[in-house]
Amino acid sequence: MTLPRPHRDDLLIAAGGLAIGLLMWSFGLHTQTDRLITARWATLIPLVVMASMEALRRTMPQTALAVGTVALVADQFTYGSLVTALMFTDLVYSAVVYGKPAAARRIPYTTGLITIGVTIGFLVWWQNAIALVVGLITGMVSFLPAVTGAVVRNHRQAADAARLRAEQTALLAEMDRSQAVVAERARMARELHDMVANHLSAIAIHSTAALSLDDPGTTRQALTVIRENSVEGLAEMRRLIGLLRDSSGDAEPAAAPTLDGLDSLVTQAATNGESSGLTFTLDDSRKPDAGALPAPVELAAYRIVQESLTNALKHAGPGEVRVELGVRRPDGALTVGVISPLGGQPGPRAPGSGAGLVGMRERVALLDGEFESGPVTADDGRKEWRVRAVLPVGTSDREPPAWYA
């Protein structure tokens, strides 16, 4: 077993204590005049042992204290050295500060009991006030350093705990910042996709048609649709830029779209899908006096319909695309459904990335709603693609999150 290497400061303390002890011994400075061992050199043995233990005060504190205690007791049978006693106090202090937690708790109580026991014992033996002086010296050599070490250790532990809490707080703050950045990026990605994808898809489809069909009438109609979607897409982009500006910018954010705008959204989709044989209908079965919905719910429903219509323009076969709005009983949740024909689309198509379905699912999840999408079979046996979302409205009295837009 390899012994731990002594700390450099401990070696300096041990060397300094031994040098001072030897200097005092050379001048004949002792703590006692009449003892059992009268040889002057005998005083050096406890001094050397105590100095050696000082070198281990940090690496082996409990062993150093045990050996130092024996050396201090042996020093009482010689003429004695003040430096030996002082180094012992440092060993008691070090055992509490650097020792194991159990030893650090036990040593102050043990030294206190020893001080009381020595005082009472000498009072009974000598029956004079000198016993109190001996007890005081014993307390100064053992109990006082132990209490000082306990105070220092408690302060160090408190400082370490405070530093650990500060590090944990900083880590949590960094995690919150990272999550906020991720949430903001996801919000921006959803908004950008939902705002622009519909218009760009229509532009891609009609520009392909204009390039592939040598018909002036068809080309003019396609260019008209392209221009309309370009203008509307530009307006949507300006709105997105307004959302991203702070209050000190030169543009104020426009109001978020609501379900009142679904009529124009469906009309625009009908114009864009006319060349592909698509028709679009809106069936709103809600009561006219149902009242306003929470802003996050209206925005999520609008975006779900908008993205579903975009997907229908990209992938649906000829036929009717139905947009259905309703209220689920008994909780009053808003239901949104978009059903489109499933099949090959004639003519040009716009590529898809799959981000639309992910964005819709994220929007519904943020409102603790339900979302499903996939192929279904109609009553007449036709294959259809259905998107269905259920958006709870029970949080209408609560402000939407700052990052939800």
What does it look like?
This protein folds into two domains: about 160 residues, no CATH class; about 140 residues, 2-Layer Sandwich (Heat Shock Protein 90). The two termini are about 65 Å apart. It has a five-stranded mixed β-sheet with strand order 1-2-3-5-4, with helices on one face. The chain is an alpha+beta fold. It has ten helices and five strands. α9 links the parallel β1 and β2.
Compact summary:
The protein has 405 residues and is an alpha+beta fold. It has helices spanning 8-26, 44-54, 61-75, 82-98, 101-126, 130-212, 216-244, 262-273, 295-315, 355-366, and strands at residues 278-284, 319-328, 333-341, 370-377, 383-391. Mean pLDDT is 82; it is low at 247-253 and 395-405.
Task: Supply the key terms.
2 domains, Heat Shock Protein 90, 5 strands, 405 residues, disordered C terminus, alpha+beta, 5-stranded mixed beta sheet, 10 helices, rod-shaped
